[in-house]
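Example record

One chain of 417 residues, shown exactly as stored in the release files.
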Amino acid sequence: MAASFDPFNASYQQHPGISMSEARREEPVFYSPVLDYWIVTQYDDIKEIFKDTDTFSASITLDQITPSTEETVAVLVQHGFNPGLALVNEDGPSHQERRKAHQEPFKGREVEALLPRIREVVTGHIDKFVKNGRADLMADLFQEAPITVALIFMGIPDEDIAACRQFTLDQTVFMYGRPAPEEQKQVASNLGRYWEFTGQLVEKIRRNPDAPGWLPHVIRESQRKPGLFGDNELQTTALAGLVAAHETTTNASGNAMRALLENRETWDRVCADPALLPKAIEESLRYDGSVAAWRRLAVKETTVGGVTIPAGGRVMMITSSANHDGSVFENPEKFDIDRPHPNRHMTFGFGAHACMGATLARQEMRVFIEELTHRLPHMSLVEGQEITYLPNTSFRGPKNLLVEWDPRLNPVLADRP
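Predicted structure tokens for this chain:
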């Protein structure tokens, strides 16, 4: 398993969970010399790692998979790039205290209040292509609407929205991919400029602290509890939060629509009965989630699945593999919206670091799919297209997702040519 494991190859990229089926059976925990990580594939082992925060530190969660070259480091230094702790890579009591201070904007009632704006954004994008008979759901909808919603949620002023778009892709390649040295240098330059931008952004929001959104809320908390968040933590929240709030939803929506349209009977059922939407969303998150892997550092020697992991060992949990563990999910390779308890999936993590944005992501996905079932129930995937993914270990969604339909048959009369 160690010799053959390559998370950048076609098999893993096409479907990480299914690609790890042999490892789950034969060698569920193994060391990968290529990555210098211990790979964990079974559900119960991954759940225990998430739970055991004393043994497994989140400190490496945002570390680069591919180490920076000296030239790349020099570029980052030039821009003063120095992100500190974010919630996702923080441990202990300080993590608990700061996570609590972040939570208010993520609560159900706050997210519910955003629904009209989310629907307005989504329908506006669908309006642009609904009469065309053909679209790329990724480029025309899922890469556009979620970032707009994310920036609204974060409280980033409208005039700064465009400047944030490209940086999210750059950050994913930089931290979780295997960029060539020249590409790494270019991406580092972009990230450095974004780091400078986030510093200016924090100052702008600080001048209007009563504004709605996640970042204004955190700035108010920093003023209410001096020392809880410094300028570095606020910048890091802006840097990491944009990816967390946008890219995962973009990818999850693309994966969900691919699974639904490849399972036509299921898609037709959801179109006919919107009450099935919550089940369809949970099963899509299990079957092909947007987060394929997560990482931890063993702070002391320990045993996982009967395998000894040394102190200082870096651990990669293949959460997509956990979601396809047959001991938890019967017939896991089948996309089945009627399966019991699909929400036991690990796509949003588990325990102290479970994703705070899960409610927002689910609501966005619901609006996306609901609007598409209502306005384009007759669309289908374009036959023969090659669906590819940005090569990286952890975040995944199709680069493109081409669909087509006869616009003359659009059920909403105003949507017909």
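Notes: The radius of gyration is 21 Å.
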